[in-house]
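Batch job 17 of 40 flagged for manual review because the log was empty.
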Amino acid sequence: SVNGNVEYSENVNLDMTLKNVGSQNATSITAILSTTNPNITITDSTENYGTINANSSATQNNAFAFNVANVITDQQSAQFTVTASDGGLGTWQTNFNILLNAPVLQATTITVDDAAFGNGNGRLDPGETATINITTLNNGHAISPIANGTLIVNSGLVTVPVNNVGLGTIAASSNVIASFNVNVDAGAQTGVYASSFTYNVNASGYTATKFFTLPVGIKVEDFESNTFTEFPWNNNGIYPWTIINSGNIYEGNYTARSGNYNIASSTSDLNIQINVISADTLSFYKKVSSEDTWDFLKFYIDNILLDQWSGEVNWSRNAYYMTTGTHTLKWSYVKDGYVDSGLDAAWVDFIIFPPMNMPLNLPQMNNDIQYLTAYPNPSNSESQISFNIIKNSNVNLTLLNSIGQVVSVLIPDKTINKGTYNISLSDINLQSGIYYCKLTTDDYAKTIKIVVVK
């Protein structure tokens, strides 16, 4: 028998009972313990039992001893052999196994906490300080030695002032969290940039490694440029999509509309190829007005149909998880050959892309917005929105929530004179969270983030 559970780094004493199952007494019995397990070092291998009478047993406490290596595989079965002899006249062998326990470390969940020194959206954003929290789990059957976690930045405009933290010991089936403060460079490009990290944890030879990337900010296509040139859209089909600025628009002044209305047996495709550099969610808003169950807006990723909508579908959001790598997205309005119904079209707006690496063809615009700001920011919903336009213009000022839903239209579409304007948010009952304030003029659109903390 073993005096307790056997774990890594232990010195173990074995009590051993030998039984004489024969009909004659066994004399001058010596027992020798051996093993071929490389993680076991036997420190006391021999025990004298003397005479063991027929059909009787003899027990020696602390008969043998061995050491277990510092780093072993959890739940391995170590085989031992006891060879008993009576001075050369007879030899008997018995095999037995002992289960060895050790920690097994695994780095699991990663979260971003930017509530204290950032905008609280759970992402890394340009110019902010945040905390990356990494959970380290012990899946083994023994408490770990004292562990340390190290975070290495492999690429990107992110720095980690202190990249090593002590985690202490980690009990079996328990976890600890390693927290690292990080600074994001203000020059990181929002939505088309991700930082790559390596997290290593080491507990005296018990290790775990996790590679991961985190996106910086989000990139939105809301067609407010009034062109398909801000992103590399492929819109060259027989019936290309168009950008409209009237009717039921989701937000802002513009939205994309399918191009084959009232054309039987036709398809209007809007395609884009993106290179996702960090697995994340793609989302967009869509609207459909068509012949129910016959004409459809269809959405594809890599030519795989993921969803389709028909009939009267008001503006609503859909989201899809996307893996890293190159992917082709397609929105397709498909008509049959017979009946037209409704407005016979589909609309898409406010597409939030996952972090991606692709050229952005930014159109040249006459920027008539001198500035757009909010103060204080973060605030408790008492923020003032301040903006300045340098010429008379048609203006729309809209407040959106974190997923692009309209919370309030602060200034509806109307022409105002050039100058500075201040709008208070005190009359809007905003809950804690992230909001976007979007200012659209005749020639330009600008969006800022507002953080509300209550």
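Reviewer: the log was empty due to a logging misconfiguration, but the result itself is present. The chain has a mean pLDDT of 88. Unflagging and moving on to job 18.
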